[in-house]
Amino acid sequence: MKKILIAIPTYRRPDGLARLLDSLCTLDPIAGARVEVLIVENDQKKSVSSILSTFEKKSKIKTYYVLEKNRGLAYVRNRILKEAIALKADYLAGLDDDEFVSKGWLRSLWEGLQKYKATVATGPTLSVFDVTPPKWIIKGNFFAMGSTRPTGKILNRCATGNFLLDLAFVRKYNLSFDARFNFIGGEDIDFFNTMLTHKAKIVWVNEALVSESVPESRMTL
Question: What pTM was estimated for this model as a whole?
Answer without folding.
Answer: 0.93
